[in-house]
Structure formats: structure tokens, C-alpha cells
Amino acid sequence: MSKLLSIFGSRRTWAWPYVLFMLCFVILPLILIAFYAFTDAAGAFTIQNFVSFFSKSEAVNTFIYSIAIALITTIICILIGYPAAYIMAMQSFRTPQVMAILFILPMWINFLLRTIATVELFHMFGLPLGEGALIFGLVYDFLPFMIYPIYNTLQKLDTNLIEAAQDLGASQRKVFTKIIIPLSMPGVYSGIIMVFMPTVSTFAISELLTHNKITLFGSLIQRSFSEGGITMWNYGAALSLILLVIIGLTSFLGQNDHENHEGGLV
Questions:
Q1: What is the pLDDT of residues 28-53, one digit of tens each?
Q2: How many C-beta atoms surround the C-beta of residue 105 within 10 A?
Q3: Counting beta carbons within 10 angstroms of the beta carbon of residue 187, is it exposed (0 to 12), middle (13 to 18) or buried (19 or more)?
Q4: Is-contact 84 99, C-beta < 8 A?
Q5: What Rg do the C-alpha atoms of the chain give, in angstroms?
């Protein structure tokens, strides 16, 4: 009995389910993607899948366009999300709980249902489906992922720093630009990653809100796996790997910029 207690009482024992989950559903799929990306249909090593991507102007243009759409969506989410998070974090307002509920409520519904509802709203008001509808739908779906990281960071700010700046004669504008914004950057960076990553790889939202008139990079990957047959799996894996590398580099560079910024503040 004591032996069982010593085994199940150890934190290392309870970590094993998470380790197995990571191995089966994170590491193993990444290994398979890398394997298919660097092999052909016969299983032989090749880089032709990457050559095919860079030699097709349509695929490269789609990738660049997807990055642009993701950047526009992320910027709009910051412009809308930061003021909303700031208002929610201010103790002088009585509306934070109401605003939080309003932003959480849409997330209780599956994003595909929300996107279909957005399509119907555009039809109801006679608005055309296209690039504008796509950006609107992306912002609508991913805005909460920008708001809540910023809100959590602002809520945990040390108010003593703000009070000290005010005692030293800093105006509200200087307090906001010199203290609040720099200290809230961790939440902004988290929000950027949480919005940019899914936006650049989405395909269902673009297909529904544009009636397949606009193709994003995620759609190319999805079609390679679902419509191209087994011979296109290698090409689809190569596209997935390229997207993973770009997202990884973006996260890494953003983290480095954030650490350098913190070092400058110190």
C-alpha cells in the first residue's frame, strides 16, 4: 500500500499521461509531416515537393496573400481588442463582467456555425461575399483570442508603478504610453500569436465567406490531402512544413523582440 502511495503520490507519475499525449498527438504527427514532405509516393527521399511549391507562382502568391490577410486581421484585432481589454481592466468601470460575457458568448458556439451565421447576415443585408467578408469573419472569430491575453496582462499590472509616475507629475497620456503599453506587451505578443497562427492556416472560413472565390494557403493544404489522392500527400505535407517553419520563425522572432524590449526597459 505504501509503495502504491509513493508511486501515485509522485508528480512525475502524473506527468506521464501528458508526455504520452504529446508524443502521440504532437511529436508523432510532426515527424510524419516531415517524413512525407521529404519523400515521394514510393517513399524515396526527395526535395521535389518543395521545388514544386516554389516553381508554381500561383501557390507562392496564395501563400503571400494568406500572410497579408493574417497580418491585416491581426492588426484590426489589436486596434479593436486593446481598447476593449483596457476598458475591461479598469477598476473604475462597472462593465468588465458584462463585456467579458459579451465576448465569451460567441465562443460557446462552434466557429463553423458562427461563420455560416455571418454568411446569412451578409445575405440579409445584401452585402457581397468576398475579401471584405473574409476579413470581417476572421476578426469576428479570433478577436476574443486577442482581447483576453491583453486583459489578463493589464489586470495584473502593478498599480504602484502607475501611482509613482502620477506622483512624479506624469500626465495620463505619458502614463499610458510609457508604462501601461510597454508593460502590456506580453499580452499583445500572446494575442498576436493566437490570432496570426490560426488565421494564416484557416480554410473553412475563407471557403464559406467567399464561396471558394478566394483561396488561402490552408485551402491548398486541405485540397492536397482530401482531393489530390495519396500521391498529393507528400506535396501537402511539404506545404504544411513550410507553414510550420514560417509560424515557428514568427513566434521565435517575436519572443526575441519582446525579450530585447524588456531588457531595454530594465
A1: 999 999 999 999 888 899 999 999 99
A2: 10
A3: buried
A4: yes
A5: 23
